[in-house]
């Protein structure tokens, strides 16, 4: 199989190594305007049996549209586009072409186990969910203005996995944020600390919290509380937590998202190459983006926002 890879940044370089070692890939074509890779060869990445896109967000829609025009199956790291309009264009173009969007938590063993337990009724009726995504240190200042803000850039993963694990839709969001660190967050209209209350379509409440300054290490967790039991994802030996009761995990904390989700990233690409189920489709990526849009609107206007306010009529 010939596979084209666009983008050789941090996650692109990881994908290059994964693809080069994959048993189905016998020709890897890499493309990046400033970086090179020891894996693969240069050339037209769309002259392939499939393409993997790991470029900056602002380029995703254009590259996905090109893949659809050429009829090349495409996997693209989230988001499908930088805004709702662009995502709708990709959604329309993807009809008849295989397009998957990278939300790797769907392929993490812990989240899969939680989803299975919930569906089997082991937790009873779900009443509450809590999610946290916290980076050990902030990204470079230049990253923030085009990122779309913490809800679109970071918590969109929480919004997608909440929908995937629970099988429910978010109907309203009440979000807030604060700036306790570098000035460049506020200068870009963003925040470095975030919190949101989400109401699902069955009345379940979910809380989401985040930070760009979690100095103990990279922290991603989910808690599901039902009438029969409570289950947590992310409380392994490398969770960056200290317990006053002596239950502190003993491993080295996760340094970043690539290390934490390395197995999930590999499993996600494997599923794409093999044509397997379970990948995030463009319509699901749109649903997560709409929750992020509602959260950002709520934060800015300091009020609850119903998802109908940000959902476009097609």
UniProtKB/TrEMBL annotation:
Keyword vocabulary terms for this entry: Oxidoreductase
Residue ranges occupied by any GFO/IDH/MocA-like oxidoreductase domain in the UniProt entry: 112-231
Domain of life, per lineage: Bacteria
Segments forming domain Gfo/Idh/MocA-like oxidoreductase N-terminal: 44-99
Keyword Oxidoreductase included in the entry's annotation: yes
Membership in a protein family: Belongs to the Gfo/Idh/MocA family.
Protein name: Gfo/Idh/MocA family oxidoreductase
Species per Swiss-Prot/TrEMBL record: Nonomuraea corallina
């Amino acid at each position: 199989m010939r596979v084209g890879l666009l983008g050789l940044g941090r996650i692109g370089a990881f994908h290059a190594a994964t693809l080069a070692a994959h048993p189905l890939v016998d020709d890897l074509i890499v493309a990046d305007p400033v970086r090179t890779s020891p894996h693969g060869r240069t050339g037209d990445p769309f002259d392939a049996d499939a393409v993997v896109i790991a470029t900056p967000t602002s380029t995703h829609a254009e590259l996905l549209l090109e893949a659809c025009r050429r009829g090349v199956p495409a996997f693209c790291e989230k988001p499908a586009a930088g805004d709702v309009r662009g995502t709708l264009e990709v959604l329309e173009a993807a009809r008849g072409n295989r397009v998957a969007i990278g939300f790797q938590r769907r392929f993490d063993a812990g989240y899969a186990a939680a989803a299975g337990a919930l569906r089997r009724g082991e937790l009873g009726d779900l009443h509450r969910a809590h999610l946290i995504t916290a980076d050990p240190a902030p990204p470079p200042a230049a990253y923030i203005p085009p990122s779309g803000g913490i809800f679109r850039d970071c918590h969109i993963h929480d919004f997608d996995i909440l929908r995937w694990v629970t099988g429910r839709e978010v109907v309203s969001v009440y979000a807030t944020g604060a700036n306790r660190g570098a000035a460049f967050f506020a200068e870009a209209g963003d925040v470095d600390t975030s919190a949101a209350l989400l109401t699902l379509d069955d009345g379940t409440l979910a809380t989401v919290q985040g930070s760009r300054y979690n100095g103990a290490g990279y922290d991603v967790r989910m808690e599901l509380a039902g009438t029969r039991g409570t289950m947590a994802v992310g409380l392994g030996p490398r969770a960056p937590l200290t317990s006053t009761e002596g239950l502190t995990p003993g491993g080295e904390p996760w340094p970043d998202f690539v290390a934490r989700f390395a197995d999930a990233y590999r499993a996600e690409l494997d599923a794409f190459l093999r044509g397997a189920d379970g990948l995030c489709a463009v319509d699901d990526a749109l649903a997560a983006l709409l929750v992020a849009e509602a959260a950002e609107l709520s934060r800015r206007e300091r009020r609850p926002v119903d998802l109908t306010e940000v959902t476009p009529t097609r």
